[in-house]
Structures are given as C-alpha cells and as structure tokens.
Specification:
Length: 522
C-alpha cells in the first residue's frame, strides 16, 4: 500500500474530535479569538468613505476546513468576520451590502460526523506520492481524495438519491447528497446574518435547488445522523431535499427583510432549527460558463442567459443601482476584443455565455458582483509559461470599468484565499469604479509591463490605476528597489511557499482581510 493510500485509510478511521478547533480561551458566548487564527488584519485593510447611499463590504475569507466541524462552528466563523470587519464600519445613514467570495459554502461538505474523515485528511495534505497536481479535471489528488471521503460519509444519502435520480452524473452526486447539510449550514448561516445584522448579504455555493419535506421516508433517507436527538425530541421534523439532479455554482443575495413566506412546515424564525433561508432571498444567479474543474471534476450544470439569471436585480432602498453577478470566469467573458466595438443591442450579446459581461451591460446592469475563488497562486506566471496572474486579472475587474463598449459603474470582487487540501486559492479583493480620479493602486507585480514577457493584450491592465476604490494588500508589497523581473521572482517565491506541501513556515499563510467603499448612485 502506498503512503497516499495509508493516509487515506487512516483518515477514514479518525473521529470528528480529532480535528477540533483551537480551545476556547473564555467560557460562555462567542469567542472570536478561537476563529480569528492565522495571518489576518484586525480590521479592514482599505476603505473609501464618501457620500454614496451604499456602503459595500467585500470580505476576503481565509478558508479552513476545521471551521466546518459543525453547523455552529461554521456560523460562528462567519459571525466573527462580521464582528471584525463590518460592525466597526456600519453607518446607520447608509444601506450596507456584505459580499463574500465564491465557493464559501463548499467546505460545509465536511460538516459533522459524515465529514470527519475529510477534515482529518485536510490536516496534513500532499503526501509524497500524491498524484500529480492538477490532473485533467483541474483537481489535485488530495482534493479528489477528500471528496471520496465525504462520499463515504454520505453513503446513505447517495444511495437514496441514486434510486430517485438514476441518470445523475456520479461526479455530481455528492453535491446533491449534501443538500440538507448545505441548507442548514451554508444557506441558513448567510440568510440569518442578513436578518440579524440588518444588511444585504451575498454568498455563493455549489448546490441543488431544494424543497422541505416531512415525509418519514425522506427523513429516514436524507436526515443528518448528528441531529438524531433533535428529531427524536420533535425539535426537527423535516429535511431539505434536492428537487432534481441538477446542481449549479450559485450566488445568492439575501435581504435584511421578509421576501417570501416559508415553505409549508418550515419557519421564518431565525432561531428555529426548521428555518427556511429562502424567506429573505432576493435573487440567485447560476454560473455560466463553467471552468474545467467545474465541468470535469464536479460535473456542475450550466446556468442560462435568461433575464432571471442575468438580471438586473433592483432593490427598493437603493434606487438607481442595477445589480448583476459574474461568478469568476463569466467576468472575463466579454465576447469581443478590448478596444473594438461589438454589435449593438442585446440579441447578439445575450446569445452566448461567452459574452456574459456584454449581456449584463446590454440588459442594464451597472453594478457587477464578482464572487471569486481563484484556484491557483496569485503572484505567479501561468503553469504553461503564460502571463503574470495578477496582471491578467485586470481583464475582468479593470476592463469592466475601463472598456468604453460597456457602461458598468462599479465592480466588487471578493476573493477566497487559503489551501483546500492541496488546491490553493489566492487573490486581492477589489472594488473598482469607472471614471474615478485620485489615488492609484495596482495588483501586486502588475505595476510594470514587461515587454517580451507580458502579452500585449494585458498591457492596458498594468500600472497604478485610479479605478481602484479599495484594494486589499497581498502578503508582500512590491519592492520598488528591485527590477520588475526580480520583484516578480520574489513574489512568486512567496506564493510557492504558501502552497500545501511546501514545508515552509509560510505554508497556508494567506491574508484574511476585508475592504469597503461607499458607492454613489450610478
């Protein structure tokens, strides 16, 4: 048996208590010192206060699978992010919106006893004989093994859904199997945050649409075994069940007020274990187009180009704002070359997901929300000898507010950071504005355009830009004393040290932080 296989087998035997969070330092109440671990800022790292009616927060969450030990620990971590970054900066005269990153709910797959083996596996990823990083699907071997361990924990739910949806792609089945977990963990957490804090909240996850059921057969098939005592006592009577074998990468916008009545049998009471998180759901966006890892590893379903999916989304207390979503890859898809003129109108623009941004513009969106989980190091050249990652990111954020063929006023891009087993995520959270003047900023390593190294199409995104209203720092600043080439080499060395398996003291020391900016009515 290989070392990889031995570790996999050992992880499957570990109990949930083996990978508990750090011990609380005080008794009673929420102890955020327990959850605010690692490399992080104590408060927001950049802000832009102004006269606008909307205070937009973008949270750069550093993921840690241990936070998903239980529904409560996950909710506590998100509450602590709100206390650290949002609470000190709320303005009662402004509407607040708090935007979290793409895939922030994915780690809740590892919740409870069913996810204990996967959490244990994540403690010490990348054994020496792990399969090659980034296989054909884009998923490293350690992440693939973690999903296998999760699937083992959900064997009862997998079997029940296989009987219900016999044609479901098995690569996607664990996402469907975790529907009840996602509703109780991910969706309920962010829905409750919106209501209890009185703010709009955006958060994202890969999941199926669902309904509530008290059918004894459904409860027997799909209920969380860790809630057996609550079911026995009658505190919980139903279960959240996937409505089909479709699952999407979705962004959800929750309001601080009532939007829908709860499904029959569920509750609108945020304190209820039967709370329906859709009661304050304003909008949901289903991602299209998809990345290779989403298509080949997770086998997610594509969203569509309907107005229900593209928006614009309007809110009664923010007249003039017209919101749309671009979950990572779609934010790069304009469908025409920067500097050229695409066909007028929305017919051509909205005929293909490869023109997603142009379609949003043609349908009237003026404020783009780009939840982000960039799977790869931030300060590095492409694995195939391509461009500097942080420079090319301007092809989404900066292009949205500098391309004259579209008319977006704002774009908000919160990044997830941290290693998910052996899959790294990194970036710099940003809020950008069209036609802004004043102070200038740049992504790390992007202050200079290096002719002969950087592609000509990326040159418009190089150099300090006034369009950055607020920009999170990276773990290192640029060193102006070095040549551009030497500066990038220094930055890339740190990015490599932060990856799983580096055995460096910098491993997984990505920066957790947040930014905010006040947005004037577009």
């Amino acid at each position: 048996m290989s070392a990889f296989s031995r570790r996999l087998a050992a992880a499957a035997l570990l109990a949930a208590g083996t990978i508990a969070l750090p011990a609380a330092s005080s008794a009673g109440g929420l102890d955020c010192a327990r959850y605010n671990q690692g490399n992080r800022t104590a408060g927001v790292s950049d802000s832009a206060s102004g006269a606008g009616p909307l205070r937009m927060f973008a949270i750069q969450y550093r993921q840690e699978v241990a936070y998903a030990e239980s529904y409560q620990t996950y909710a506590d971590k998100m509450e602590c992010l709100m206390q650290a970054y949002v609470k000190p900066n709320l303005d009662p005269a402004k509407v607040a919106m708090v935007v979290f990153n793409e895939d922030i709910g994915l780690a809740t797959l590892a919740t409870g006893s069913r996810g204990a083996a996967a959490r244990a596996w994540a403690l010490n990823p990348v054994p020496a004989d792990t399969p090659a990083l980034y296989n054909a699907s884009g998923a490293p071997g350690g992440v693939a093994a973690a999903f296998g361990l999760v699937a083992a924990g959900y064997s009862r739910q997998l079997a029940a859904y296989r009987a219900r949806f016999p044609d479901e792609d098995p690569r996607k089945a664990v996402i469907t199997a975790a529907t009840d977990t996602f509703v109780r963990g991910f969706m309920s957490t962010f829905s409750r945050l919106a209501r209890t804090w009185g703010v709009y909240v955006v958060a994202s996850n890969n999941q199926a649409d669902f309904h509530y059921s008290t059918d004894p057969a459904d409860v027997a098939a799909f209920a969380d075994p860790d809630l057996a005592a609550e079911y026995a006592a009658g505190a919980i009577k139903g279960v959240w069940v996937a409505s089909s074998d479709k699952a999407w990468n979705q962004a959800f916008l929750f309001a601080p007020y009532h939007v829908h009545d709860p499904e029959s049998g569920a509750s609108e009471d945020v304190a209820s274990p039967e709370y329906d998180p859709r009661t304050n759901l304003v909008a949901a966006n289903k991602k299209t187009p998809l990345t290779e890892i989403e298509k080949l590893f997770l086998a997610l379903d594509d969203g569509d180009m309907s107005t229900a999916n593209t928006g614009p989304v309007t809110l009664s207390d923010l007249p003039g704002f017209k919101f749309g979503f671009a979950i990572s890859l779609p934010a790069f898809r304009f469908g025409y070359d920067f500097g050229t003129t695409p066909p007028p109108g929305e017919t051509w623009a909205c005929a293909s997901p490869d023109r997603w941004m142009l379609c949003l513009d043609r349908r009237g969106v003026n404020t783009v929300i780009q939840p982000e989980a960039n799977s790869g190091p931030w300060a590095r050249y492409g694995a195939d000898g391509g461009n500097w990652q942080a420079l090319t990111w301007g092809a989404s954020t900066l292009r949205a507010v500098t391309d004259t063929a579209v008319h977006f006023k704002y774009l908000v891009c919160p990044h997830m950071v941290g290693n998910l087993v052996d899959l790294p995520f990194d970036g710099q959270t940003a809020i950008v504005e069209r036609d802004r003047t004043g102070s200038e900023r740049a992504y790390v390593g992007a202050k200079d355009f290096i002719a002969g190294t950087d592609s000509a199409w990326a040159e418009p995104y190089s150099g300090p830009k006034p369009e950055f209203l607020a920009l999170a720092p990276w773990v290192l600043d640029d060193d102006p004393a070095l040549t551009p080439e030497a500066n990038r080499a220094r930055l890339q060395a740190r990015a490599e040290e932060m990856q799983a398996g580096s055995l460096s003291a910098e491993q997984n020391r990505y920066l957790e932080t947040a930014i905010f900016a006040d947005l004037a009515t577009p």
